[in-house]
Design goal:
Structural class: mainly beta
Number of strands: 13
Strand content: over 45%
Oligomer: single chain
Strand order of the largest sheet: 1-2-3-4-5-6-7-8-10-11-12-13
Distance between the termini: 33 Å
Order of helices and strands: HEEEEEEEEEEHEEHE
Shape: globular
Radius of gyration: 19 Å
Largest sheet: 12 strands, antiparallel, barrel
Number of helices: 3
Length: 249
């Protein structure tokens, strides 16, 4: 099972905006490890834990962070607009579970688009639009999020909610069943677009003058009906846990 990009994106984005934010040093980089445990909801597949390396590089307005690259197009005190690109690590292989036997693999994709972040006195708002550049799923995803940061002596905790709209082509690629893949126990399924809702808590902790960062996150995503009704899925959502460490040079 391929690793979802959400947890790793949360980790590297936090590293960029906090521990690596230092205008007096135009080039910084960090390296570490992240352990991600998640259940994507596919039938009889269950929970999967993966340990992955994390590399973070920042130079001026450009950052390359794990599977994601960003370039800041505009930045003010409370608003930031960036062009973004990322490797979408969703999908599965035929041998990941019995439910996928006789199906073609669903591959990773390379998505690109724009994201905006707005900081206010009552929370942080985010908007993001990403589209497939590799003609893999040929779709797009639009996300809107809201979080309330609580700053502590050695870190911060951010409860957040988000809504994620995935186009019909994207949902069909990862959760649909093609006519040639249909069986008596796995019917043909061609879904429309779906909106999933996510709730979670993201936390970051810093030690040694910001050189050491520990991240611990937990989230639950409630699937839209078009995903829940897929014959490949037997759960109403997915749970994800992340624990990571980064050393910033």
């Amino acid at each position: 099972m391929k690793l979802s990009n959400l947890a790793l994106t949360l980790m590297i984005a936090s590293t960029s905006s906090t521990a690596m934010a230092d205008e007096s040093k135009p080039f910084r980089w960090g390296i570490g490890l992240a352990a991600v445990a998640q259940d994507q909801g596919y039938t009889d597949v269950g929970n999967e834990t993966v340990v992955v390396p994390v590399v973070a590089i920042e130079y001026g307005n450009f950052s390359l962070l794990g599977p994601r690259a960003n370039y800041k197009l505009y930045q003010s005190e409370n608003f930031e607009l960036s062009a973004s690109a990322q490797l979408r690590m969703d999908g599965y292989e035929e041998d990941d579970g019995d439910i996928f036997k006789g199906m073609e693999d669903r591959d990773m994709a390379f998505d690109a688009g724009f994201e905006a972040e707005i900081d206010t006195s009552f929370g942080e708002f985010g908007l993001e639009l990403m589209h497939d550049l590799t003609s893999t799923h040929e779709g797009f995803e639009f996300s809107a999020s809201y979080g309330i940061p609580f700053r502590l002596e050695k870190g911060r905790v951010v409860p957040y909610i988000s809504a994620n709209y995935q186009s019909d082509k994207m949902v069909d690629y990862y959760y649909g069943v093609r006519a040639e893949e249909a069986t008596a126990s796995r019917q043909f399924y061609e879904p429309d677009a779906a909106t999933s809702f996510e709730i979670g808590i993201s936390s970051d902790w810093y030690f040694g003058r910001g050189k050491h960062m520990i991240k611990a996150d937990i989230s639950y995503s409630a699937y839209g009906s078009e995903i829940k009704d897929s014959p490949l899925v037997d759960k109403s959502g997915s749970t994800q846990l992340l624990l990571g460490y980064v050393y910033v040079f």
